[in-house]
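Q: Convert this sequence to structure tokens.
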Amino acid sequence: MDRDKKQNVQMDNFSSTAELTSNLGFQSSLSIGSSKGIEDEKKYDPFEHRKLEHPNSTIGSIVHLLKACLGSGILAMPAAFKNSGLVTGAIGTLLAGFICTHTVHVLVKTSQEVCVDAKKPSMSFAETCGAAFTYGPKRLQGWGGVMKKITDASMTLAYLGVLCVYVVFIASSFKEVLDPLYPEYVLSIQIYCFLTLVPLVLIGQVRNLKYLVPFSAIANALILVVFAITMYYIFVDLPPLTERKMVENVTQWPLFLSTVIFAMEGIGVVMPVENEMANPRRFLGCPGVLNVAMVIVISLYGIVGFFGYVQYGDEVKGSITLNLPEHSIFAQSAKLLMALCIFLTYALQFYVPMEMITRYLEKRGTNTCNNMIQISIRTGIILFTVVVAAAFPNLELVISLVGAVFFSTLGLLIPAIVDTVYHWDKNLGCLNYVLWKNLLIGLISIIALVSGAYVSIEKMIEDFSNDHTAHDVHDNATIT
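A:
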């Protein structure tokens, strides 16, 4: 009798285990009772599985982040301060810098955690966003692929916007230099935009990233020279602070916020820099690569924006280089050098949207006309950026619009969503502070998007109407 009971107990235990492992709600790659499998699961470290041929040092990674953030955006900071005032601009730059740094930190941290779940050594920005949903709440796991495509599309549109800014910048710089030299041959900004088409189409045909490295090196050297010349003119004969507004009208603040977001957001290069580090554990933390780079960036942006506005006041333009003296050889040289720098950088930025388009074409299979298709698409995209730039040639407003619509979404809203979704079933912190914090960031992003886009588009339409009115008046005077 006792023997029969013992057998029944053993059979019951066996039956219970069998039901547990066959239960559809219990999905695991580990066998029950295998402590070795659990230990292997916990020991996976994505950093140890990264195989890099040419890893970046900690200093090199800081330099890459600085290069990504200290581009044409820093030259737009005085125009941002014009729309905020000195006091509001200084405080706003610090707050915007803190928020942008935090969202980048959140994105990288989530990427590192998702790499452990997916057992992958590294992930791109779009892959991180998709994987956060895939390894997040069960109800949202099917949205991983959709989120990846949305992020890819947002990145492509953002960089197309940046390319439009670059065309306006190049055209404006050449117009500022050539108009005083040849007053009898003054051309419109639209004509200068279209004159950039052929050179941009030629440089845009470069398809291999390694062939763009020399362009990047030359651009880096040029921007240092331009920055030195610009800083000299900013600090020469500064007027008193009392001549400038301390706080601008609140209706202008959206232009300030969207310009600062455009200037500071290097969200597209953050993941590549972290993925290529020899010691990625040094990217986050204190001091960490991210914190060191962003402290330098925020400091320089605040200094250039503050004193640039003090120097030129409400006359400051979308790029402060356009305010440099017309009769100074050094100043005019700085404008041309910056135009050349942006021209060379155009090819690097153009690589981002083309990379996504190329992946899409490869999925559709090989084609004997692939080369012609590539050339046609590249030429068509460049023509599109030139046409848009010619239609809306106000550099300050174009920068503000791109920052409001695209970089507030990529740099603020998407990281907040990804962080919330991934940690929804894991850990939202004490009193769900992660949720409330991300809701606040999302709200700021939406405010920047809606208000910045509205004000920018309203002023663009106003400029467009004024231009047509001026042309009509000129034509009537000529007929008379």
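The chain has one domain: 52-470.
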